[in-house]
Predict the 3D structure of the following.
Amino acid sequence: MLDFKHTERTRREFESLSLDHLDARYSAGLRLTRNERDSEDLVQDTFLRAFRFFDKFERGTNMKAWLFKILTNTFINKYRRRVKERTVVEGASREAGNERFVTREPTESSADPEQYFFEKLLSDDVIRSIDQLPIDFRLVVILADLQEFSYKEIAEILDCPVGTVMSRLYRGRKLLQKNLLGYAVESGVVQPKQAAELASVADDEADVLEFKRHA
Amino acid sequence: MAAECRQLEETFLHAYGDGEFSGEESAEVQTHIEDCDSCARAVRIHQSYRAAMMRAGVTAPHALHDAVRAQLVAESQPGRWMRAFRDPRAVGVAAAAVGAAAWFLAGGLRHPIFARPQTLVEDGVALHARALPLDYAASDVGSAQRWLEGKVDFGVQLPQLGQVQGVRLSNVHSRQAAVVTYTLPRGDGRRVSLLIVDDPEPQLSGASRRIADREVWLSQARGFNVASWRNHEIVYSLISDLSEQDVVALVQAAEMHGTSTGTR
């Protein structure tokens, strides 16, 4: 039995095309699974599957998007259930984790706080806020804002229309920005008074609930 | 923001900010922004948000890069493996090949051409320094130990070090690991991490010392003191910013509890 698919040359070709994307896959996997071990497993599974189906990959097309499609499907099929089981404990520990950041020095209020408050946040706060998003929103936000995929690429990865990508992304970002605003107030980056004003920008809860009913 | 502009935000402003538009379409949005303060502000907020998100990426551990490569190498030779195990004469050859591969890997990883693999001490210090959220918030050693049962496939004996805060599961050199966080009653609630790994390295690093009838290896990385010891093939590493003297005292006290009472 000769195996033409997986010769040394194939492996080298696969490695040269795919290994550059490993960090980005891990980074995305970590935000999907919210757990280092699951993320490492997810990345390993993704690369193994991608290699096994490498003959299905159209040379010259987008390797990054192709790998992400495999990662997303693997995550949805295999890890989602496992991750769900952990969510209960995580909720409690996340609250404990937040306390560490309350002591941060309050910064002077800026002349244009609306414009800049996101940039003043620690990346830890950004990560926590992403992790709090429901999975459907988290997925599109990761794809668009961490991986910088175009709407069309995201639609192909998730097998859904571009319009769906746009509305999920819009609502996901609004939810995320609401979380971020909470951290900004907590850490003194934004004054509570200004927060009320800014909250209207992020207030789309009704839309979100409606979306959940239809999803 | 006016109602029609809010509609515009969802369909056009973000798409514009995300670089989705052609030059002509972008120019159209640009024209609107020049006359509409609220839309202009929405675009600036969006840019600020994107910038914050870009900083949230992380890189994968070196060990994961190595593991993925090794997995691909193994996967690319299934035919040879199958044949080797069907033919008894070839089993010897295969075993020799595995030995050679292992030897090469061990030597190869030390070769400068490969990315320098992190030592257990460095991995432990990185985990301690990052203080990531806990998977399980525990109030005492017993509940932390019970929670860990079934989460890792090796037995764990948690020592009494201070007040247990909780446990986080992790991976070190693609092996299962758990990090237990304690705070010490003295020294204004200083945080101490205990990294528990299933036998990652044949040789522990650092200077060896005998503490409470046990071989303990003391080392330093990035300003943290690390004490490692082995108990039933499981390596425990205590990471803190305590002085070496205090670390020794802590290990001494911990070992007495850990061996005499187990769960407590």
Summary: Chain A touches chain B through 64 residues (CB under 8 Å). Residues 63-98 of chain A form the longest helix (36 residues). Residues 87-111, 204-215 of chain A have pLDDT under 50 and may be disordered. The domain at 105-215 of chain A is CATH 1.10.10.10 (Arc Repressor Mutant, subunit A).
